[in-house]
Amino acid sequence: MLVVEVRGTVREVLVIGLDGAMYYFVKRFAEEGLLPNIESLIEEGVLAEALPCPPTDTPTNWTTIATGATTATHGVTSFYIHIPGEPFELGQKLRSRGQLTEYCKAEYLWSVADERGIPTLVLNYPAGWPGNMRRGYVCLYTWPMPESVPRVVVGPRSFEFAEERGGVRLLGRGDEIGLSSTRPVLEITLPLEGGLIEEKASLKLYAFDPDGSGYRLAVPRGGGYEVVEQGEWSDWIGVKLRVAEGDEWSGGTRGGLLDCTFKLRLVESLERGVRVERSEVFTTEGWINPGGLEGELLRSTHYLGEEAVAARLRRRLEYDIFGEEAEYLARQRVEALRLARMAAYFKDRVGWRLCFLHYHLMDGVNHRFLGYLYREFPFYDEGRAETAWRFYEEAYRVIDEFIGLLLKSCTSRDTLVVVVSDHAAVPAWRALNLRRIFVEEGLLRYRRESGRYVVDWSRTRAFPWVEPLAVWINLRGRDPQGIVEPGEYEEVREQVIDLLQGFKDPETGERVATMVMTREESVNVGMGDERTGDVVYFLKPPFTIWCGPLVDILTYTATDDHLDGSWIVRDQARVTGIHGYYTPNETVGRFSNSAILIMRGPGVERGVELKKPVKLVDIAPTIAHLLGIPLPRNCEGRVLHEVLC
């Protein structure tokens, strides 16, 4: 293979992607001294607000960041892509396929680097699977990806095994199985079930007391045993499991008979039994490309003391944040620690010089809590606002610790560090029943089939899509079940536009939609390709569609509530911060949908805050310029000369 030496201002680049991180919070918390690592990056580099490409969704904008291309050019329109000529149902059944390389029409920056001999790592990133690189790796983690194997098939679980209970058989003093015990040995059948495990399995292990001081675990190992003391974790245990395919949220991860691994911990020796904790059950194939490193990576990065880290965080939070929220932050801190270790592992293993990684903490926090910080939110009260504010502070501290770990383990002063988010969010609570609106207009029809409602294409003239927000005319000759004649196309499209522009909240009189455009007009906002709907529009906060259930998004089917309920469903408090339905610069109070950009390193100005927003489409060409490599094919962004010195 020909390796071409490249010359640029920087030798290596670390792109730290923070899903949902908001300019307002980063700037405020850094100024308050809560984020020392981020504050240092800002003081030594450049801070800017950054505008996403519409729609302001996760797959769309991580693809934009990696390609320097707009939505129309790379074609990743949101979580659900409709390709003309396919049945409309197909695109809504294949969630997240736009994250696969084959559906991206633009070139990724890491592909350019790989062609020029630059080792690259793409870690937990919502785009680019599989990478098919010669000198680099794409490694999945918690972000689900279609056509991959799930990294975790079932979560951790605790068990209590005792005499006279199911799953336990009393043996003698252990001589017949090669153990010596002062009391009867417990033969334990540990179940392996739940989650994605399709066929139940089990593992035989033993609890024995060699000296009268309490039980130990004995895990069979190649004719002998691994002895696990109280409080200790076992070594990794390998097993083959029959794993089911993933659900719609995961876009359909692959299943089958897979190599898996897990650990056991003897939590406590009881008077007549033991309490045992089982780790997550991980697969050891199918989530790194090229494959083969999964098992080694787990051994090198997981269960190296992170449980103690989580426990420390939990204790620190117990006076401020309780219950599920505290557990969530504890898990997220463990995830951050593991991600940092994984980046360092690949740094040692392949010596990457370009790394794109993604951490998904803040998007979940925004969805859950943002509304409670806004006084006009219908469910606002001072107590909830105070709790939500503390949660935001703690979550951004976790991010700052994560960045600190990465800076310490993976960078030098000569590394270009880019911290970027894909979007933020604004408060939203007024949920729309989009189906009812189009049904009442006579544009959309459903029929009963096998106990549920599905679209009746023989009577449907316009089909509303949710992610992205668009409307497709059911056009004869283009769409498999089209009924609208080409000569009627513009008439039906004008009817849809009038309907969208005429949306008003019956209680407040507010318009619901803004920037209603034809496909041709949407070219002006970076859309307008064949995957863009015939009509494109954005909502005006506080109006939203998705408030938790997946069925709200999948408009090819419907429920009785969708067809019989009001078109304003309700004020809801389940998902309180939303991004994908709004324009990139939408603001509500202090909160904005725009992203954040921080750059520090060789060739970058120091201590500068840009007065004007930049665009996420500009990041890839700027990195390419500093690395001294060509821009990706189809790149439309510009080099950010204002951040360069």
Quickly list its features:
single chain; 645 residues; alpha+beta; 10-stranded mixed beta sheet; 15 helices; 25% helix; globular; disordered N terminus
Rough outline: globular
- Secondary structure: number of strands: 36
Task: Give the class from helix and strand content and strand pairing.
Answer: alpha+beta
What are the low-pLDDT stretches, counting only 5+ consecutive residues below 50?
A: 1-6, 311-323
Average predicted local confidence, pLDDT: 93
How many angstroms does the end-to-end distance come to?
A: 35 Å
Gyration radius (Cα, Å) is 27 Å
How many helical stretches? Answer: 15
What does the largest sheet look like?
10 strands, mixed
Q: State the helical fraction.
A: 25-40%
Strand content: 15-25%
Provide a descriptive summary of the structure in words.
With 645 residues, this protein is α+β, with helices and mostly antiparallel strands. The chain has 15 helices and 36 strands. The strands form nine sheets. Strands 1, 2, 3, 4, 17, 18, 19, 34, 35 and 36 form a ten-stranded mixed sheet that branches. Strands 7-8-9-10-11 form a five-stranded antiparallel sheet, with no helix packed on it. Helix 8 runs antiparallel to helix 9 and helix 10 packs antiparallel against helix 11. The longest helix has 29 residues. The chain is globular and about 85 Å long. The N terminus is likely disordered.
Task: Compile the SSE list and pairings.
Elements: E1 12-18, H1 23-31, H2 36-43, E2 46-51, H3 58-67, H4 71-74, H5 88-93, H6 109-115, E3 120-123, E4 137-139, E5 152-154, E6 157-162, E7 168-170, E8 186-192, E9 201-208, E10 216-221, E11 224-228, E12 237-243, E13 256-262, E14 264-269, E15 273-278, E16 281-283, E17 288-289, H7 294-301, H8 306-317, H9 323-350, E18 354-359, H10 361-369, H11 382-410, E19 415-420, E20 426-427, E21 430-432, H12 434-440, E22 446-449, E23 452-455, E24 462-465, E25 470-473, H13 489-501, E26 513-518, E27 535-539, E28 543-544, E29 557-558, H14 560-564, E30 568-571, E31 577-578, E32 587-588, E33 591-592, E34 595-600, E35 608-609, E36 614-615, H15 619-627
Parallel strand pairs: 1-18, 1-19, 2-35, 2-36, 3-4, 3-18, 21-28
Antiparallel strand pairs: 2-34, 4-17, 5-16, 6-15, 7-8, 8-9, 9-10, 10-11, 12-13, 13-16, 14-15, 19-34, 20-31, 21-30, 22-23, 23-29, 24-25, 25-27, 26-27, 32-33
